[in-house]
Amino acid sequence: MAIKSYLSEQKLLVEAAFETFIPKAEGVVKKHIEAMRYSLFAGGKRIRPILCLAAARAVGGESVDDQDILPVACALECIHTYSLIHDDLPAMDNDDLRRGKATNHVLFGEAAAILAGDGLLTWAFDLLSNPDSSKLAAEKKLAITHCIARAAGSYGMVGGQDLDIANENSEFPFETLQTIHRSKTGALITASVISGGICGGAAPDTLAALEKYGDKVGLAFQIVDDLLNITATTEQLGKAAGSDAERGKATYPAHFGIEETRHLAKQAVEEAKNRLTGFDEKAKPLRLLADYIYTRSH
Amino acid sequence: MAIKSYLSEQKLLVEAAFETFIPKAEGVVKKHIEAMRYSLFAGGKRIRPILCLAAARAVGGESVDDQDILPVACALECIHTYSLIHDDLPAMDNDDLRRGKATNHVLFGEAAAILAGDGLLTWAFDLLSNPDSSKLAAEKKLAITHCIARAAGSYGMVGGQDLDIANENSEFPFETLQTIHRSKTGALITASVISGGICGGAAPDTLAALEKYGDKVGLAFQIVDDLLNITATTEQLGKAAGSDAERGKATYPAHFGIEETRHLAKQAVEEAKNRLTGFDEKAKPLRLLADYIYTRSH
User: Fold this and answer.
1) pTM beyond 0.95, yes or no
2) Closest Cα of chain B to A243: distance in Å?
3) Would the N or C end of chain B have less CB density within 10 A of its end CB?
4) Phi, psi (5° rounding) for residue B101?
5) In this predicted complex, what is the ipTM?
6) Number of structural domains, chain B?
7) Per-position b or e across A37-71, b if 16+ CB within 10 A of its CB
8) Which of 156-215 (A) contact B at CB < 8 A?
């Protein structure tokens, strides 16, 4: 299996599911939903939904119906997209460019962008808790909703973003950098893997292995993000390169230098794959995804 | 039963439950949670949680355990509070004063305020979907989560706020004003009543009656809000009086004049109470709450 064709095929699957599971731009709130859809459809690698699908299949194999995972996958991308819209706001990172396009607030104005983010976040929970969105049992839907809410909130992504902003231009220990990375990026990536595992009917010890895999993959993802912010161009990234240094953000390369950081990212990927030793070949996409996270160029 | 003592007793019950169900300001995200708690504990009438509790008891009587309703009641107040924090932001209504205190962004800065709102919204769904928060069955928790997500999101509160902002200083038909009121304020009030009904084990026709009651009470609430914005002082309101006219917002008094608006509010309250004819004396607090919404002075 070639990772590139796998990724583009899965991306298409996820984006086709948006048409089923994301509100249409019509009716009285047409403009508001247009703003939500603009950022959701503005590209993106769809890593979180793809990890969720891959984890479900790694556990459940052919017994898992894609239609039961896709609402969860779409909800994860809604949450990721809302976080980008709010992070880009003038009061936060003040970014004009994202995925090579104007950021939400540049196009729709600040108030509409805040509300587009709020709308996407809330829609994610609408989708996750919808009794009619799939055949998954209520207990599973509830467990998935709770796992994702915990990861997205104050003890995960939102709390990490707050710490990140609060610590700009200040010296802080490596442990704080790790906490920021784990909560801001790692938590939702881990929740993507765990929620996929729950969709696939994983037993508790399997879920625990998936959680550790997710944790290491999330760490690798953020370390590589730090690296690319230095080594890639704005054109490659589709967002401002070099912005971390400009904002005085603590990053892995700032702490360890580029070579050692590369080594640490590679190590995290290997550790992630080691967590899957008890899994059979159905977990091959999870292994390839870990490798891809290290080799990606944007 | 005197409504004043009932309200203050229920308010105490809800605020005591915050200590159980709301994150403590400690650990690495201490400052972020302080910002969330600041607005949550800054006063407020706790109307939504109280409606939720009253609806559950109107339906389930003594068989309903307060401990099963309180997590839902707290989640509703988290969502209401997040909406106030985001509405007050400079990019939205740009308000400095709320409940007689500095608004969140004035005290904590804009970035932290946006994240405090995001954190409260996400915590609400964490609480609603937490399998261990109460003894309610997974099916009920899921139905409650979904009902509240739908009401809080793009087809409810968030969509209504977007319409409200987009239509400032513009002429629009009365139907649009109704849509804004119904979605911005009415939807979450109705969801408070319905989610209480689900906690109490209401049958579908009882839920339908509660929904109609909630709809009329929500309408009355917003009409009275429009009135108070003109007739009350900033001191009474704890927020800027006269701000609607200043911002060119369409309101009931602007459309109908003060006397006719009072009549319409009274009518909505009577219609709300009429929806409860099939309920026994356990619904007395719901009837008194409807009256209170008309007579309140802030």
Assistant:
1) yes
2) 18
3) N
4) -125, 165
5) 0.97
6) 1
7) bbbbebebebbbbbbbbbbbbbbbeeebeeebbbb
8) 158-159, 161-163, 165-166, 176, 179
Contact between B187 and B181 (Cβ < 8 Å) = no
Rounded distance between C-alpha atoms, residue B59 and residue B42, angstroms? 31
Task: Kindly state whether A238 is in contact with chain B, defined as any CB-CB distance less than 8 angstroms.
Answer: no
- The residue type at B297: S
Cβ–Cβ gap A111/B176 under 8 Å: no
**What length does chain A have?**
298
Chain A partners within 8 Å of B121 (Cβ): 118, 121-122
Q: Which distant-in-sequence residues (6+ apart) come within 8 Å of B86 by Cβ?
A: A114, A115, A118, B92, B114, B117, B161
**B78 at interface of A, judged by CB pairs closer than 8 A:** no
CATH of the domain at B100: 1.10.600.10
B5, burial (CB in 10 Å: exposed 0-12, middle 13-18, buried 19+): exposed
**DSSP symbol at B130:** -
Segment holding A102, helix H or strand E:
strand A101-102
Q: How far apart are the CA of B49 and the nearest CA of chain A, in angstroms?
A: 19
Residue A235 has what pLDDT?
A: 83
Tell me, what's the pLDDT at A186? 96
Q: Indicate yes or no: CB of A125 within 8 angstroms of CB of B130.
A: no
In chain B, residues 259-288 whose CB comes closer than 8 Å to chain A: none
CB atoms A111 and B91 under 8 Å: yes
Residue B52's domain comprises: 3-295
- Identify which of B13, B118, B241 has the alpha carbon closest to the alpha carbon of residue A121: B118
